[in-house]
Amino acid sequence: MKRGCLGNLLFGCLLVIVFGLSSYFWFNFFVRGRSLPTPNLIGKSVVEARAMCLDGGVTLEVSDHVRNSDKVPAGYVAWQNREPGATSFIKRGARMKVDLSAGPLVIRVPDLGAQSPRTALLRLGQQNLKFGNLTYVEAAAEKDGIVASEPPSGTVVPAQSAVSLLVNMPVVSRTYVMPDLIDHMLDSVRPGLEANGLHVATVKFEAYPGIADGIIIRQFPLRGAPVSGRDAISVVVSKAEETNIIEQGAQPARPVTTQ
Predict the structure, then answer these.
(1) If you average pLDDT over every residue of the chain, what do you get?
(2) pTM for the whole thing?
(3) I need a labelling partner for 108 at 20 to 30 A (CA). Which of 10, 142, 173, 177 fits?
(4) What's the CATH code of the domain at 150?
C-alpha cells in the first residue's frame, strides 16, 4: 500500500515536471520565437531607427508631435511608445511609434512693458521663469507700470531664471489753493505759478475800459479752488483792443507767492 502511494506521488511529480518543461518549450517556440526585445531608438536618427525596426520586422511610425529635449538633438528620436530592454518584447509585424526631438526649450524674457507687477508675475510663471527684485521709481513717463526688466525682454535665458523689474509709479502732483490773480500783472504772476509746478495754459486778451494793459481781469480756476500741476489755468488779460489771440509764451517778471 505504501509502495503504491509512493509510486503515485512520483508519477504526479513527473507529470508536473513534464508539463512545466513542455509549457516553457512551447512558450518560447510560439510566443518568444515570434517576438524580440524592444529596441532602444532614443537618440537615433530616423534612418537608423527605421533600419533597426526593419531588422526585427517592426514597422516604425514617426508622429507629427515633437518634444523639447536637452539631451537629444533636434530631428532625432526623443520618445518611443514601448519601453526598451531585454525584458520588454515586441511582436514581429507590430508598430512602434516615436516622437522626434525639437532640441532644447528656448525661453525668452517676455515683453512686460506697461503691465502691472501682478500680471508680470503670472506671465513669468507661464514662461517657467521666476519673479526677481521689484524696484519702484517715480518718473514722468507716458505710461505707468513696468518700464524695464533685467534681463531685457527678448533675452534667451535658462528655465527658472529670475527676472527683476523696474516699475514706474505716477508722480503725485502737489495740490495748492488757487491764489487770487485778479488785478495782478500776468507777467508778474506767471513765474510764481510755474515755480510751483502750475502753468497758465490759455491767455485771452480783452478790452476793458479804465484798466491798464496786461492786468488779469478774470481767472479759472477761481480763487480758493484746489489746483495742481495737472490742471490748466486760464486767464483773461486787459488790452487796449480786444482780441481772441491765445498767447502761449509771455515773458516772466517778478514772482507772486501761492497760498
Answers:
(1) 83
(2) 0.44
(3) 142
(4) 3.30.10.20
